Amino acid sequence: MSRLQADGLYKVFGRAPDEAVRRLAAGADRGELRADGTTAAVIDASFTVDPGQIFVVMGLSGSGKSTLLRMLNGLLEPTAGRVLFDGRDLTSLPARELRQVRATKISMVFQHFALFPHRSVLENAAYGLEVQGVPRAEREKRAVEALELCGLGGWAASWPDELSGGMQQRVGLARALATDADLLLMDESFSALDPLIRRDMQDQLLELQKRLKKTIVFITHDLNEAMRLGDRIAVMRDGRIVQLGSAEDILLRPEGEYVASFIQDVDRSRVLTAAAVMTEPERDGEGECDCPSVSPDTPVAEVCAVSARVPHPVAVRDADGNVAGTVPRERLVAFIGGQEPDDARPVPCAWAASASAKEAAHA
Fold it and tell me: Which residues form the ABC transporter domain (predicted)?
C-alpha cells in the first residue's frame, strides 16, 4: 500500500469555488476563471508516494506546488478531492484528529528555517516533541540524536544566530527527524542556501535517506535538484501535473514542449546512470575480462571516464559482480548528444562505403 495518495485534488480561491471545479473538470483553463475573480491554484492533481520514496514536485513560481504540499498535511483544505495517508482519508478527519496526525506522523521542513531565535539549537530541535507532550529528558535525548544525525552534535547549546544558513537548515531537518514522523514535507527547503551549501544539504539528505528510509515529498523549482533527489518527479505547470515519472522518464521521454524546454539545459551525464544506457552484451563473454567496470547506478559522466580507458564496451556489474549489461562508446556519445539510448546506434556512412569500394577496386 502507498504511504501517501493524492486523489483528484483541486484548490480554488475566490468566488464560487465548487462551480469553478466543475468548469475546470469540463475543460476550462484557469485563465478563464481568473477573469471572473477566481484563482485555480491546483487542478486535478493525482499521484501516489510509496514508503521510503523521495517524491519531488517541481515547477516554476505560481505553478501550484506549495499549495499542493499544504493540502497534503491539511494546512489547506482541498476544494475537491482527497488525501490518503496510510489509508486514512485526511480530508475527512475531525480537526482534533488531523492535528494529532500532523503532530506525530507528518513533519515539515520550511524554506527559511523557521527557528526560534530565543531558543537554543537543542530546544529548537526538540520543539516538535515538546508540542507532542514528550517529557523533557526524553525529548532532549531524541533531539541530540537527531542533531548528531545531521552533523550538529557539538552545537546543541548554541543559538540560531551563531550558525550559518546551512547549519540552521540542518537544525530544521533535525527538528523534523526528532519526531520520528513517517512523512517529511520539504517546501523549497534548500533554495535559500548558497549553491555549495545547497549541494552539501542534498548530499546530507541522500545520506540520511539511505539510513532512515523516510517517505519524503520535496518541493523545488530547481530541475537539477529534482533530478538529483527524486525517485519520482511530478512536473507542474499552471496548477496541473503535466508529467509524472522517474528522472530517466522525464529526461529521455519529455511529454510536451513545456517539459522538453524545461530539461534542455540539464547535464544528462551527471543525472542519469549506466542503467539508462546499457544494453545486452553483443557477444558471449563480453564484459567478463578484468578491465575496469561500473555499477548500474554509476553516473554516465563516470562511465565516460571508464570508456576512455578500455578498448571495448564498458561492463556494468550488479551487486554480485555479474555482468548486467555493457555500454558501447557510440551509445555514450549519442546519449550525451541528446539522443535516446535506443537510437544510439551506428549509422551507415556513405563516404566510408564509397572509400571501401574504391579500395576494393584498386586491390
Answer: 4-263
Task: Judge whether 174 and 152 are in contact, CB under 8 Å.
Answer: yes
Whether residue 275 sits in one domain with residue 265:
no
Domain boundaries, position 203:
51-79+89-269
Q: What is the pLDDT of residues 111-137, one digit of tens each?
A: 777 889 999 999 999 999 998 889 999
Is 325 in a helix, a strand, or coil? strand
* Helical pair 300-307 and 329-336, crossing angle rounded to 10 deg: 140
Domains in the chain: how many in total? 2
Are 240 and 250 in the same domain?
A: yes
d(CA 234, CA 246): 9
226 and 312 inside one domain: no
Q: CA 233, CA 246: separation in Å to the nearest integer?
A: 6
pTM: 0.84
Q: Look at the block and give the residue holding cell 483528484.
A: 8
For residue 200, count other CB atoms closer than 10 A to its CB. Answer: 17
According to DSSP, the β-strands at 38-49 and 4-14 are antiparallel
Tell me which of 41-50, 269-278, 337-346 is least confident. 337-346
Q: Is residue 146 part of a domain?
A: yes
* Residue in 44, 188, 49, 59 with CA at minimum distance from that of residue 113: 188
Indicate the helix (H) or strand (E) that contains 56.
strand 54-58
Written as one letter, the residue type at 186 is M
Q: Does residue 276 sit within a domain?
A: yes
